[in-house]
Amino acid sequence: MSIRILYFAGLRERLGAAGEDFALSPGLDTVGALRRRLCERGGAWEALAEGRSLRMAVNQRMADAGAALRDGDEVAFFPPVTGG
Amino acid sequence: MPVRVQREDFDVGAEIGALTRGATDVGAVASFVGLVRDTNDGSGVSEMTLEHYPGMTERALEEIVAQARGRWRVADLLVIHRYGRLLPGERIVLVVVTGAHRGEAFAACEFVMDYLKTRAPFWKKETTAAGSRWVEAREADDEAAARWDAQRPGG
Question: B53 and A8: CB-CB below 8 Å?
Protein backbone atom coordinates (compact mmCIF):
# COMPACT_ATOMS: atom_id res chain seq x y z
CA MET A 1 0.00 0.00 0.00
CA SER A 2 1.76 3.11 -1.15
CA ILE A 3 0.81 6.53 -2.40
CA ARG A 4 2.53 9.38 -4.21
CA ILE A 5 2.68 12.73 -2.38
CA LEU A 6 3.29 16.04 -4.19
CA TYR A 7 4.18 19.44 -2.71
CA PHE A 8 3.83 22.74 -4.55
CA ALA A 9 4.93 26.36 -4.46
CA GLY A 10 6.05 27.84 -1.11
CA LEU A 11 5.47 24.53 0.67
CA ARG A 12 7.66 22.66 -1.84
CA GLU A 13 10.46 25.18 -1.27
CA ARG A 14 10.16 25.04 2.52
CA LEU A 15 10.28 21.24 2.53
CA GLY A 16 12.99 21.07 -0.11
CA ALA A 17 10.95 18.31 -1.78
CA ALA A 18 8.60 18.25 -4.78
CA GLY A 19 7.22 14.86 -3.82
CA GLU A 20 7.82 11.41 -2.42
CA ASP A 21 6.50 7.87 -2.43
CA PHE A 22 4.95 7.04 0.90
CA ALA A 23 4.01 3.64 2.38
CA LEU A 24 0.61 3.66 4.06
CA SER A 25 0.54 1.94 7.42
CA PRO A 26 -2.61 0.48 9.01
CA GLY A 27 -4.76 3.23 10.49
CA LEU A 28 -3.25 5.87 8.26
CA ASP A 29 -6.24 6.04 5.97
CA THR A 30 -7.23 9.70 5.55
CA VAL A 31 -5.57 12.84 4.20
CA GLY A 32 -5.81 14.41 7.65
CA ALA A 33 -4.01 11.47 9.27
CA LEU A 34 -1.31 11.65 6.60
CA ARG A 35 -0.87 15.37 7.22
CA ARG A 36 -0.43 14.78 10.96
CA ARG A 37 2.09 11.99 10.31
CA LEU A 38 4.15 14.19 7.99
CA CYS A 39 4.03 17.05 10.49
CA GLU A 40 5.47 14.72 13.16
CA ARG A 41 8.72 14.62 11.20
CA GLY A 42 9.37 18.00 12.83
CA GLY A 43 11.51 20.90 11.58
CA ALA A 44 10.39 22.19 8.19
CA TRP A 45 7.59 19.61 8.17
CA GLU A 46 5.78 21.58 10.84
CA ALA A 47 4.66 23.72 7.90
CA LEU A 48 1.98 21.03 7.57
CA ALA A 49 0.63 21.68 11.09
CA GLU A 50 -3.14 21.79 11.34
CA GLY A 51 -3.39 25.53 11.93
CA ARG A 52 -1.45 26.36 8.74
CA SER A 53 -3.50 27.42 5.78
CA LEU A 54 -2.97 24.59 3.28
CA ARG A 55 -5.08 22.99 0.58
CA MET A 56 -5.16 19.27 -0.11
CA ALA A 57 -6.03 17.23 -3.17
CA VAL A 58 -6.53 13.51 -3.76
CA ASN A 59 -6.15 12.26 -7.33
CA GLN A 60 -6.17 15.87 -8.57
CA ARG A 61 -9.39 16.91 -6.86
CA MET A 62 -9.64 19.22 -3.87
CA ALA A 63 -10.14 17.15 -0.72
CA ASP A 64 -10.76 17.74 2.96
CA ALA A 65 -9.05 16.12 5.92
CA GLY A 66 -11.58 13.29 6.03
CA ALA A 67 -10.91 12.13 2.46
CA ALA A 68 -9.99 8.42 2.36
CA LEU A 69 -6.65 7.21 1.03
CA ARG A 70 -6.25 4.13 -1.14
CA ASP A 71 -3.33 2.28 -2.64
CA GLY A 72 -1.91 4.16 -5.62
CA ASP A 73 -3.51 7.52 -4.78
CA GLU A 74 -1.85 10.80 -5.71
CA VAL A 75 -2.08 13.21 -2.78
CA ALA A 76 -1.02 16.85 -2.97
CA PHE A 77 -0.45 19.54 -0.35
CA PHE A 78 -0.17 23.20 -1.37
CA PRO A 79 -0.79 26.78 -0.23
CA PRO A 80 -4.04 28.56 -1.17
CA VAL A 81 -3.95 29.19 -4.90
CA THR A 82 -3.07 32.56 -6.45
CA GLY A 83 -3.59 32.25 -10.21
CA GLY A 84 -5.50 34.48 -12.59
CA MET B 1 -10.31 22.49 -26.42
CA PRO B 2 -12.06 24.89 -24.03
CA VAL B 3 -9.08 24.88 -21.62
CA ARG B 4 -5.41 25.45 -22.41
CA VAL B 5 -2.54 25.71 -19.94
CA GLN B 6 0.59 26.85 -21.72
CA ARG B 7 3.87 28.73 -21.49
CA GLU B 8 3.31 30.63 -24.73
CA ASP B 9 1.49 33.91 -25.14
CA PHE B 10 -1.90 34.01 -26.85
CA ASP B 11 -3.53 36.31 -29.41
CA VAL B 12 -6.81 37.64 -28.00
CA GLY B 13 -8.19 38.71 -31.37
CA ALA B 14 -7.31 35.42 -33.04
CA GLU B 15 -8.89 33.41 -30.21
CA ILE B 16 -12.13 35.40 -30.32
CA GLY B 17 -12.14 35.14 -34.10
CA ALA B 18 -11.76 31.37 -33.97
CA LEU B 19 -14.54 31.07 -31.39
CA THR B 20 -17.05 33.17 -33.32
CA ARG B 21 -16.24 32.17 -36.90
CA GLY B 22 -19.46 30.96 -38.50
CA ALA B 23 -21.36 31.26 -35.20
CA THR B 24 -24.11 33.51 -36.50
CA ASP B 25 -26.34 32.76 -33.49
CA VAL B 26 -23.83 34.52 -31.24
CA GLY B 27 -24.73 38.09 -30.38
CA ALA B 28 -22.33 38.67 -27.49
CA VAL B 29 -18.70 38.02 -26.69
CA ALA B 30 -17.45 38.78 -23.17
CA SER B 31 -13.75 38.46 -22.46
CA PHE B 32 -11.32 39.01 -19.63
CA VAL B 33 -7.55 39.36 -19.94
CA GLY B 34 -5.33 39.31 -16.85
CA LEU B 35 -1.91 41.00 -17.06
CA VAL B 36 1.21 41.03 -14.89
CA ARG B 37 1.39 44.31 -12.94
CA ASP B 38 4.67 46.02 -12.10
CA THR B 39 3.61 46.73 -8.52
CA ASN B 40 2.00 44.66 -5.76
CA ASP B 41 1.54 45.41 -2.07
CA GLY B 42 3.58 48.59 -2.42
CA SER B 43 6.64 46.97 -4.02
CA GLY B 44 7.89 47.13 -7.57
CA VAL B 45 7.65 43.77 -9.33
CA SER B 46 10.29 43.07 -11.97
CA GLU B 47 9.08 39.59 -12.93
CA MET B 48 6.68 36.85 -12.00
CA THR B 49 6.88 33.07 -12.12
CA LEU B 50 3.71 31.02 -12.24
CA GLU B 51 3.83 27.47 -10.96
CA HIS B 52 0.97 25.02 -11.51
CA TYR B 53 -0.06 21.44 -10.85
CA PRO B 54 -0.04 19.73 -14.26
CA GLY B 55 -3.09 17.56 -14.70
CA MET B 56 -5.07 18.97 -11.82
CA THR B 57 -4.94 22.45 -13.33
CA GLU B 58 -6.61 21.35 -16.56
CA ARG B 59 -9.13 19.24 -14.65
CA ALA B 60 -10.03 22.11 -12.29
CA LEU B 61 -10.47 24.55 -15.18
CA GLU B 62 -12.61 22.09 -17.14
CA GLU B 63 -14.80 21.63 -14.08
CA ILE B 64 -15.23 25.40 -13.72
CA VAL B 65 -16.18 25.67 -17.40
CA ALA B 66 -18.72 22.85 -16.96
CA GLN B 67 -20.21 24.62 -13.95
CA ALA B 68 -20.53 27.86 -15.90
CA ARG B 69 -22.32 25.97 -18.67
CA GLY B 70 -24.71 24.56 -16.10
CA ARG B 71 -25.55 28.04 -14.79
CA TRP B 72 -25.88 30.10 -17.94
CA ARG B 73 -26.92 29.55 -21.54
CA VAL B 74 -23.69 30.24 -23.35
CA ALA B 75 -22.51 29.11 -26.76
CA ASP B 76 -18.79 28.69 -26.12
CA LEU B 77 -16.24 29.15 -23.37
CA LEU B 78 -12.48 29.36 -23.62
CA VAL B 79 -9.90 29.59 -20.85
CA ILE B 80 -6.18 30.02 -21.55
CA HIS B 81 -3.80 30.35 -18.59
CA ARG B 82 -0.05 30.71 -18.87
CA TYR B 83 2.67 29.45 -16.54
CA GLY B 84 6.41 29.98 -16.26
CA ARG B 85 8.31 33.27 -16.19
CA LEU B 86 6.35 36.41 -17.10
CA LEU B 87 7.28 40.09 -17.21
CA PRO B 88 5.12 43.10 -16.28
CA GLY B 89 2.65 43.85 -19.05
CA GLU B 90 2.54 40.26 -20.26
CA ARG B 91 -0.76 38.43 -20.53
CA ILE B 92 -1.46 35.75 -17.89
CA VAL B 93 -4.99 34.59 -18.49
CA LEU B 94 -7.77 34.83 -21.05
CA VAL B 95 -11.44 33.95 -20.55
CA VAL B 96 -13.84 34.27 -23.48
CA VAL B 97 -17.56 33.53 -23.32
CA THR B 98 -19.89 33.74 -26.30
CA GLY B 99 -23.67 33.64 -26.22
CA ALA B 100 -26.87 35.03 -27.60
CA HIS B 101 -26.99 38.00 -25.21
CA ARG B 102 -24.53 39.99 -23.13
CA GLY B 103 -25.99 39.38 -19.67
CA GLU B 104 -25.24 35.69 -19.50
CA ALA B 105 -21.89 36.09 -21.26
CA PHE B 106 -20.74 38.77 -18.77
CA ALA B 107 -21.90 36.74 -15.77
CA ALA B 108 -20.31 33.48 -16.95
CA CYS B 109 -17.02 35.27 -17.69
CA GLU B 110 -16.86 36.81 -14.22
CA PHE B 111 -17.85 33.51 -12.59
CA VAL B 112 -15.07 31.62 -14.39
CA MET B 113 -12.47 34.17 -13.25
CA ASP B 114 -13.73 34.20 -9.64
CA TYR B 115 -13.67 30.42 -9.42
CA LEU B 116 -10.34 30.16 -11.21
CA LYS B 117 -8.79 32.50 -8.65
CA THR B 118 -9.74 30.25 -5.74
CA ARG B 119 -9.86 26.73 -7.26
CA ALA B 120 -7.32 26.34 -10.04
CA PRO B 121 -3.91 25.23 -8.71
CA PHE B 122 -1.66 28.09 -9.82
CA TRP B 123 0.79 29.95 -7.59
CA LYS B 124 2.48 33.27 -8.32
CA LYS B 125 5.97 34.10 -7.17
CA GLU B 126 7.07 37.67 -7.76
CA THR B 127 10.52 39.16 -7.86
CA THR B 128 10.98 42.54 -6.16
CA ALA B 129 14.05 44.59 -5.26
CA ALA B 130 14.02 42.81 -1.88
CA GLY B 131 14.05 39.33 -3.48
CA SER B 132 11.45 36.75 -4.42
CA ARG B 133 8.21 36.14 -2.56
CA TRP B 134 5.16 33.95 -3.02
CA VAL B 135 1.99 35.95 -3.50
CA GLU B 136 -0.45 35.45 -0.62
CA ALA B 137 -4.01 34.42 -1.37
CA ARG B 138 -6.44 37.31 -0.88
CA GLU B 139 -9.56 37.07 1.23
CA ALA B 140 -11.34 39.29 -1.30
CA ASP B 141 -10.92 36.51 -3.88
CA ASP B 142 -12.60 33.99 -1.58
CA GLU B 143 -15.44 36.43 -1.03
CA ALA B 144 -15.82 37.03 -4.75
CA ALA B 145 -16.11 33.28 -5.36
CA ALA B 146 -18.44 32.75 -2.40
CA ARG B 147 -21.01 35.21 -3.67
CA TRP B 148 -21.72 32.83 -6.59
CA ASP B 149 -22.24 29.96 -4.14
CA ALA B 150 -25.02 31.98 -2.52
CA GLN B 151 -26.81 32.31 -5.84
CA ARG B 152 -28.98 29.70 -7.43
CA PRO B 153 -27.62 28.23 -10.66
CA GLY B 154 -29.01 30.33 -13.44
CA GLY B 155 -29.41 33.25 -11.02
Answer: yes
The partner residue sitting opposite A8, judged by closest CB among B60, B119, B121, is B121
For residue A48, the enclosing domain spans 2-78
Task: Kindly report the pTM of this predicted structure.
Answer: 0.94
Listed in order, strand segments (DSSP E) in chain B are 3-6, 28-35, 39-40, 43-44, 47-52, 76-82, 84-86, 91-99, 122-128, 131-134
- Over the stretch A5-49, which tens digit does the pLDDT of each residue have? 999 999 999 999 999 999 999 889 999 999 999 999 999 999 999
Chain B residues with CB under 8 Å of A84 CB are: 34, 81, 92-93, 113, 116-117, 120, 122
Residue A26 lies in a domain: yes
Task: Tell me if A83 is assigned to some domain.
Answer: no
B chain contacts of residue A78, beta-carbon cutoff 8 Å: 53, 121, 123
Count of domains observed in chain A: 1
Q: Is residue A84 part of a domain?
A: no
Does any domain span residue A41? yes
- Residue A34 sits in a domain whose CATH number is 3.10.20.30
To the nearest whole angstrom, how far is the Cα of B146 from the nearest Cα of chain A? 15
CA angle, corner A47, sides to B129 and A13, nearest 5? 45
CA angle, B25 as apex, B21 and B28 as ends, to 5°?
80
pLDDT in tens, A44-84: 999 999 988 999 999 999 999 999 999 999 999 999 999 99
Interface confidence (ipTM) of the complex: 0.95
* Mutant choice from B123, B136, B139 vs A, greatest count of A C-beta within 10 A: B123
Q: How confident is the model at residue B155 (pLDDT cuts 50, 70, 90)?
A: very low
